[in-house]
Amino acid sequence: MAAELHVALVAADREVWSGEATLVVARTTSGDIGVMPGHQPLLGVLESGPVTIRTSDGGTVVAAVHGGFISFADDKLSLLAEVAELSDEIDVQRVERELERAKAEDDAEAERRADVRLRAATAAR
Amino acid sequence: MGAQLRVYKRRIRSVSATKKITKAMEMIAASRVVKAQRKVAASTPYAQELTRAVTAVGTGSNTKHPLTTEAENPARAAVLLLSSDRGLAGAFNSNAIKAAEQLTERLEREGKQVDTYIVGRRGVAHYNFRERKVTESWTGFTDEPSYADAKKVAAPLIEAIEKDSADGGVDELHIVYTEFVSMMTQTALDARLLPLRLEEVAEEAKPKGELLPLYDFEPSAEDVLDALLPRYVESRIYNALLQSAASKHAATRRAMKSATDNAGELIESLTRLANQARQAEITQEISEIVGGASALADATAGSDK
């Protein structure tokens, strides 16, 4: 049995990341879920949150995903998101400013987005 | 310089200026086509995965959803027309508008009331000039549509289809856009987007008759479908917007290329006419001088006697 799974993280307008991984942890609407090779076929709705991908060469990729789907079959895992960013694309200081502004303006949506980004960025460190 | 010659010279100057502009527009459009095509390619993985997922839920469960159920007596239909903000694109907009009008006519013959939704200033102007009712319109992003634009367009349409037709909702959603076949060919066509025919989607997703695995749905098939279908519609609208943008740029490029060619031909024939006029002027001057000289010679010859 293959000890790794092929992961494709795609946003609506681009492919964000793809490669081999041994474990993917994502947050669905009913809770966190970890997918390893050989998992049963799965199709779930993702919550906004960080997605952690443990790559087969031992590294970790963290991405902030704002809503979307996870689908897994035949050791191929697709993460579909309208908006997805890798943690190293996220500018922490900018996001912190955004978070403060969102809190000040009482914009729950923006606050949630900034929070997800920030968590993804800090989880990668 | 003769008056005739001056007129020709002036026309040549103005045509060359026009040619320069159309040439520049042609080149800009050519680079934008490439960019738009790249965007279409970049959005393909998402669209493919989404189609696969929709098929998986649609075939793997017997879930009913307003976006997939056919109304028994469809009474209202929405038509979404994708035109462009700017003209100078040959027959691009008129073809799209014509396709929308034919579709509207057909739907009305079938006894459905048609709500028109329009993207692009050209289409809006066309409908407003004829004082036809436009339910909703969007402008300002047709050259380079983003996914957020597609979401903006899709939201009221999905809302309308989820409502009952009695309270102002619609039963069907048709989309008219211009398919980008190649640099030379773009065809305006209409497609029924909603309600979804799951069998068609399924054919698109697995042409080789491969079997889909039995998925475990998280949290449930209904919830997944609920979340999935609007995204699918958005992604289809996004794809149509991108294709229309690419087609528009290709049409502009072609129109501007023929304008440039025409200007070149015009300059050539005007140059010929100008040369002819100049030559006629010279000939006339020479014959005037010769005539004058011989008249003078005749006069002096007479006085000598």
Give your account of this protein's structure:
The complex is a heterodimer of chains A (125) and B (305). In chain A, strands 1-2-5-6-7 form a five-stranded mixed barrel. In chain A, a hairpin with a 2-residue loop joins strand 6 and strand 7. Chain A has two domains: 83 residues, ATP Synthase, domain 1 (Sandwich), CATH 2.60.15; 34 residues. Chain A is built from two helices and seven strands, in the order E-E-E-E-E-E-E-H-H. Chain A is of the alpha+beta class and 125 residues long. Chain A is 24% helix and 51% strand. In chain A, helix 1 packs antiparallel against helix 2. By secondary structure, chain B is of the alpha/beta class. Chain B folds into two domains: 54 residues, Helix Hairpins, CATH 1.10.287; 231 residues, ATP synthase, F1 complex, gamma subunit (Pyruvate Kinase, Chain: A, domain 1, 3-Layer(aba) Sandwich), CATH 3.40.1380.10. In chain B, helix 1 packs across helix 5, helix 1 packs antiparallel against helix 6 and helix 4 crosses helix 6. Chain B is elongated and about 125 Å long. Chain B starts with a helix and ends with a helix. At the A-B interface, strand 1, strand 2, strand 4, strand 6 and strand 7 of A face helix 1, helix 4, strand 6 and helix 6 of B.
